[in-house]
Amino acid sequence: MASWGEASQSRLIGKRIARLSGKDKVTGKAKYTYDINRPGMLYARILRSDVAHAAVMDIDLSQAEALPGVKAVIPLTEAGRNLRYQGQEIAAVAAETDDIAKDALRLIFVELEELPFVVTEADAMAENAPQIRDWEGNQSKPGINEQGNVQAAFEEAAVTVEATYHTPVQTHVCLETHGHVTEWTDDQNLTVWASTQAVFGVRNDFARRFEIPANQVRVITEHMGGGFGSKFGPGVEGHTAAQLSRITGLPVKLMLTRRAEHLVAGNRPSMTQHVKAGASSDGRLVAYDMRGYGTGGISSGAGFQAPYVYHVENRKTERFNVATNAGNQRAMRAPGHPQGAFAMDSLMDELAEKLGMNPLEFRRINDSSEVRQAQYTLGAQEIGWHRRNTVPGSGTGVKKRGMGVGSGQWGGGGGRGTQARVTINADGTVEAVTGTQDIGTGIRTAIAIIVAEEFGLAPTDISVKVGDSGPGLPSGGSGGSQTTASVAPVIKTAAMAAKQKLFEHVAPLLKAPVDDLRVGTGTIYVASDRTNTVTWNQAAGLLGQESISEGGNWDQELRQGGVAGTQFAEVEVDTQTGNVQVLKIVAVQDCGLAINRLTTESQINGGVVMGLGQTLLEERIMDPQTGRMLNANLEDYKVPGTYEIPEIKSIVFDTHRKVTGVGEPPCIPTLGAIANAVYNAIGVRIRELPITPDKVLTALAEKKA
Amino acid sequence: MSEKEKEEKKGTNISRRSFLKGVGTGTVAATVAPATILVGDPETAEAQTDEAISKSEIQLNINDQVVQIEVEARTTLLSVLRDGIDTQGNYVDLTGAKLICDKGECGGCTVLVDGKPVYACMMLAMDAQGKQITTVEGIANGDELHPVQDAFIQHDALMCGFCTPGFIVSSVALLNENKKPTLTEIKEGLSGNTCRCGTYPFIFDAVETASQKM
Ligand code: FES
Ligand code: FES
Fold it and tell me: CA-to-CA distance for A588 and A571, rounded, in angstroms?
């Protein structure tokens, strides 16, 4: 049975290894979809609705078509249809240059009749609000769940807390916007460079859309500039590019503008929850009652986790979606978890305070995860938990410090569906091929490490080919932190099979049985006589005109889902400006078996930074008067920059020797940890994210009054 | 809309913006009679397209190579680098610098102009004439990487890598000015660059390591 072996036996797995794509990325040679330049390529742009809700009366493309340099103009809606959010597609243009495409958009005449709209949850739920989709009162039917006896439990509770927590809509802000370069080699064969998290998913989608066989669509994603859950399909923009390409017979590049990226390329839904919870005098969470909702724009999917992580026997939850005239939500890094964690971790602290308990102790009592119990101890040590204010807000001076803790959990155990091949050539070179994609997580390097470990080579000796559907070796989309756990077992078993084949060639030469052979560093030797050895290249040379090429299989035993994490934050709040500066985050993240410790640390850093952004900075601001997003750019929509970055101690917490994904979990506990630290610093609780200076100052003023 | 109406719209001075200002919107507007909105912008469009846009042939010095190219007055340096086709008909194809925000907000398009970091999305190609332009492709010395590039790889100061060219160029510019920056100075020097993957902690480490090697 395959296993990853003991840590002490690993030469590469679990070590800190530089990313294979590093050189291409630091020299500017790495080609993203955005960078693809094809001979004769056209540039396409999309004309979008600038209003939240309108009926299309008339579209006139003729003047745009007549502009010199314009090669095609197509409508993306038609008279009689409704546009239901700002940014929705109206028409598209392909032209010789991007500037001409821009000009042409201005020559498209569209007559719209504006319809009543709602862009905020409050407006959507207001009495007499216009109904904008098939939900009465713009609210989906609530999902209700009850376990235990909530009412009785509340009677038993020694303390109760009632509060409302809110997180706003956050957008993904992929730095490479969504987009494609499409090229038809003939009317049955399409090549697409796609900025995607799902090469094969995109391939199949294009095949369906254009009614051609899937094996006649080739999708290439050599490098891609961030997806975070928003890039699983071609979307309107992908289909439009291919359509324009088909009409013109030329390659077309269509990348979303920064503005469109905010408006239509997905977002994390908002969350509002009214929650009441009770705890017993010995610190057990006994009762939980939550009613909550969120908006995913015009679509549904605004779910969140509640309760979260901590166990509560008697609980009742009621959740629903609120429709607004805004772009669709899409999965965003740990969908539903960070919001839920912010509310739950805030609630836990509020209960602990009422009980007069240390919030960490209160968590320990209610957390059944042994892993997290160990993480609490380690994290508390690292941050210096004993230094926290026992009385919140008791620090002196203008700048007050505080500490907080938060928790998270995730699956990430991978799944079937990946095909891979590992090939050994007679010149000693090695190739590993599979149809997954490297979205910045470092799977390319992880594959090289696994193969190199198996063969006794260096990761740089392995040529890894991912991000291309051409070889016909499918793999799933990179979502749910599933990539490594899905791909690693297949690569590992393919490498094992290839090694076995090579041993069969080598055995006669070394005059030893196959099962007595082992790999050394760049060598193959006989275990019972270590002086009996050949170099890797000599061994491969025995293949002559042939090569070894083996597939792998999904081996359950090599992966495992279910990770626990906790984070501790220390902040400093300026009580005069309201500014919150995070000083330090300790992130203790269960990683199962980390294939590459270095890139795993990067993942944790990245999760923390995104969580920090969600806690302190990020918010999509909709104007209820005009129905427009007010901050659809990178200046007013704030993402963390260098000044916001605290000292981050990312701890790869080894738990077992099975592969697990960690792309998403590290962005979860950050919210509660920072929010609780802010409370610990100033003694007033902010229950609405992001915690911006105005909210801090208002809260402080209210406390005084 | 009728041809006549279109003609009239063209003739008026109503830009789309002022037109929209006059339109009642918001839930309040639910009771107001529906308004007609015109999405094209005839006025500006005409200004751009009525006369053939004039082009000029210029020479740029990019990574010690002369690039001969035809540009419009509005063509940015970034668009020459990324999308430009020179007078020989070849793509300039220096796609390391990225257009991320198009507004001087993210630093993804940073290049060196006479040694100083500049947002190439904010500089007109015409204004780059007679200057030494260095893009991320010109930072290494042939096959030998710049210490900043080595340090970025060593520290894994990149994930998706889309922001990386901008950070590399800004870091080189910073270290050219300040050989031994403190952490605060590193944050200040790179404050014009954004990374969504959140690689900042390792970027700071990388710049620090590079500063020791330079
Ligand atoms: S693209 Fe130039 S600063 Fe963002
Ligand atoms: S590495 Fe992805 S944006 Fe910086």
Answer: 18
Kindly determine whether residue B193 and residue A641, on different chains, have CB atoms separated by under 8 Å. yes
Residues A437 and A381 in one domain: no
CB distance B36–A113 less than 8 Å?
yes
Lining residues, ligand 2, CB within 6 Å: A 175, 226, 440; B 158-164, 195-197, 199
Q: Cβ–Cβ of A29/B186 closer than 8 Å?
A: no
CATH number at residue A284: 3.30.365.10
Instruction: Determine, yes or no, domain membership for A316.
Output: yes
- In angstroms, the CA B67 to CA B75 distance is 15
CATH class of the region B55-136: alpha beta
Q: Are strands A430-434 and A462-465 parallel, antiparallel or unpaired?
A: parallel
Q: Minimum-distance ligand to the CA of A641? A: 2
Q: Are strands A252-255 and A42-48 parallel, antiparallel or unpaired?
A: parallel
ipTM metric: 0.97
- Given a contact cutoff of 8 angstroms between Cβ atoms, the answer to whether A268 and A290 are in contact is no
Give the tokens for residue A145.
């769940």
The rounded Å distance from CA A28 to ligand 2 centre is 13
Query: Same structural domain for residues A636 and A679?
Result: yes
Per-residue pLDDT of chain B (214 residues; tens, 9 = 90+): 455 555 444 433 223 332 333 333 333 333 333 445 555 555 555 555 555 578 999 999 999 999 999 999 999 999 999 999 999 999 999 999 999 999 999 999 999 999 999 999 999 999 999 999 999 999 999 999 999 999 999 999 999 999 999 999 999 999 999 999 999 999 999 999 999 999 999 999 999 999 999 8
Nearest Cα residue to A652 out of A12, A16, A197:
A16
CB-closest option in B42, B145, B160 to A224: B160
In a domain, A261, yes or no: no
Q: Are residues A272 and A399 in the same domain?
A: yes
pTM for the predicted model, two decimal places: 0.95
CATH number of B147-213: 1.10.150.120
Query: Do residue A100 and residue A244 come from a single domain?
Result: yes
Residues of chain B neighbouring A51 (CB-CB closer than 8 A): 25, 37
